[in-house]
Amino acid sequence: MSLCILAAGKTVTLSVAAFTLSWTHSVERTRWQEDWKVTPSGLQVVEARIEGSGAGMEPPEGAVLHDGWWIYAPDVGSQRRIVLAASGATGGGWTLCSVQGCRELGKTAGDTIVLEPCGRDGTSQPR
After folding, report:
1. What is the pLDDT of residues 108-120, one digit of tens each?
2. Max Cα–Cα distance, the chain, nearest Å
3. Which of 31, 12, 7, 29 is nearest to 83 (CA)?
């Protein structure tokens, strides 16, 4: 499987089966992290971590506190795509890390980034 990243009219293809998406909460200024798998049916979040708790960041039932991070498995089905829209309120966008390294996404307010599994030919799937 591979992941297509669509931004600024361009598509970047990463040959990865999994990735971690992380960002800073715009109010509490603490970190969030999510581990995702790329599957034929879409993107599946397998684990999430919240550094602390606060406004809009209450850990769900069943979350475990470990070394300052609330860790849990989100009960969310496979997603056809993830749309990220930068607010500019956090001083940065998202960090996407995989076995191929890390990259910053959506640093500028108003930037929209779409993450989705790539088609068989390695290009973005038709919408």
Report:
1. 777 789 999 998 7
2. 43
3. 7
